[in-house]
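Could someone model zinc ion with this protein?
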Amino acid sequence: MNDAVPGGTPAGGRAHQEAHHGALGSRLNWLRAAVLGANDGIVSTAGLVVGVAGATTDRAALLTAGLSGLLAGSMSMAAGEYVSVSTQRDSERAALALERRELREQPEAELEELTELLERRGLSREVAREAAAQLTARDALRAHARVELGIDPDQLANPWHAAGASFLAFTVGALLPLLAIVLPPASWRLPVTVVSVLAALVVTGWISAGLGAAKPGRAVARNVAGGALAMGVTYAAGTLLGAAGV
Ligand SMILES: [Zn+2]
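Reply:
Sure, complex below.
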């Protein structure tokens, strides 16, 4: 990655590159979360419908189970994401409020703090002092938020966006096993579902390994094995229940 941006002065090049890394990094995080959400939707819904298919050939039962699994899973994911991002945003807001108060009540100590933080990043004492003074004059709270807290006060994470994205990602993933078990004729249901689910897990495993810059082989094998295990276990349980006449 570091060799990907040639040219420019060393300092300017690095700063430029870091700005890009920031934006690219958050986009990659979103993409990774979306792929993981879809993967969850695929595996949990596939396990559910394959288990029910082990017990019954009734299409209405399969549709009901699959759709319930899709809705329950996507709403559970969305609610969990909403709670977690809300909590994160609350603590970021509290940190900003504290920072705002400190800036009001002890501006000198805060200027010194910002100076030291900039010094620690490699600036000389005088340059750090000058930079801190300029940043403070322009927008003290933003400077402290960025340098000290590592957050952008204008871009706090939105819990509704996070919840919506999780809901959507899980739903997209869950639709695959749901349609694969409901649409084909009875004798084709299981093979179509198992093959399409395993193929989809190859794709999601491959993409998430690529996003983490890891070698895809092992990640794909683990991902496919996880899905195969889920389907195998629920199918065995469903078959036993079906055979017992439950
Ligand atoms: Zn501060």
